[in-house]
Amino acid sequence: MFNNIFNSIITNGSFTGGTLIAATAIALLCGLIIAVTYMVRNKCSQSFAVTLVLLPAIVELVIILVNGNIGAGVAVAGAFSLVRFRSAAGKGQEITGIFLSMAAGLATGMGYVGVAVLFTILICAASLMLNLTHFGQNNDSVRVLHITVPENLDYEGRFDDLFGKYLKTYEYESVKTTNMGSLYKLTLNVTLKDKVSTKEFMDELRTRNGNLDISLQRATQVVDAL
User: Fold this and answer.
1) Model's pTM, two decimal places?
2) Within 10 Å of residue 113's Cβ, how many Cβ atoms?
């Protein structure tokens, strides 16, 4: 019974109206599962969500029409080669969603509707689990600290005791002058200790730098554009 899932509903490259409707319905279902899974933990535009839903059905129709017809396959490949995509670079998960939609469309187009549904559910479940467990996410305690000090303040070693009290690690990233050279701006990559009060940390820093500007912000994440 289980092995029947891996059988194709299209035989000898021919299909009926019922076969076409069934394959298209399964392709749309796979696209809907992919789109909903992507939207759980990612910002998604309506246009991209609709694309994920419809793409498997479109690919499925193309594969059904060229199935077993070499001439039609070459013609379709030539037509697709003329298409140019002029859009912003997509993130890694966006590219993954598009390829998954295309894979589901290919499977349904060849009649392997059971394979398409099973593969879509497995990949979407894995994606959802990895997103919900924050797999690969940067440590939330890693921050960037900016401290402004007056030019007459010897900042070297000035804050070391406070850094030892509130930080696990710290590293000077850059030091530059500002305000016509009357001020120094220190930039450090720091890792906060567990359960420390950022307000107390900022208050103690302000007593050392003459109450000038201080900022503590999350580290800028690298955009995963492909």
Assistant:
1) 0.66
2) 26
